[in-house]
Amino acid sequence: MQLDKKDQTCDAVKLTSQHGVISGCLNGVAHPDMIASLTTQVTPPGQPVVVVITSSPVWFPLIVDGVSCTTTYTTVCSYTWTPGTQHTISAPSVQVGGTGTRYRFAGLSDGEAISHTVTAPSAASNLTANYGTWYLLSLAVTPAGAGSIAASPSSADGYYRSGAAVQVSATPVTGRQFLGFNGALSGTNTPQSLTVSGPLAVSAISRP
Fold this sequence. Notes:
Layout: E1 14-17, E2 20-23, E3 25-26, E4 29-30, H1 32-41, E5 49-56, E6 61-64, E7 67-70, E8 77-81, E9 86-90, E10 94-96, E11 101-108, E12 115-119, E13 125-142, E14 147-152, E15 159-161, E16 165-172, E17 177-183, E18 192-195, E19 200-207
Parallel strand pairs: 5-13, 13-19
Antiparallel strand pairs: 1-2, 3-4, 5-8, 6-7, 6-9, 9-12, 10-11, 11-13, 13-15, 14-16, 16-18, 17-19
């Protein structure tokens, strides 16, 4: 910072820093040494930073500042923000995958809620919306109405998190005999356990 002699007044050398207004004045008069020191104390305004927001797995749409953005294997949602500014981020609670596959929100990498406001950081950063994989376990009785089949723990929509252990049991109606399981399970033992590793189907077969 340079000042002409005619500008060397207290008002001319007051600058705003992160610590408030500072002045290169001594007893109301601009002082050369203090002016030189002043130029090194002032922190420049925050420079824009790049914030990358993505999902894991990719391909899931996220909402940033009210606008949808989808990441892929080759593209990311990249934003240039001024440090300290406020921005909104939200992620759908459920993303639909292939047949019998869903992805449920597991958490954001910053530990915040599924929808929240973030303050732009002072340095480049990444934010990831993480999703867990869930698979459909389809249960049926053959012939229909000839008994019941149940899974434990139960699931309201039939979906279980990948790797979940589930016990399946079958009960025929009075007058019918349970013959065994078909599909992801086999044999006549009931209940039986399975590990959910993909979309699965189990049927309980009975006869008169």
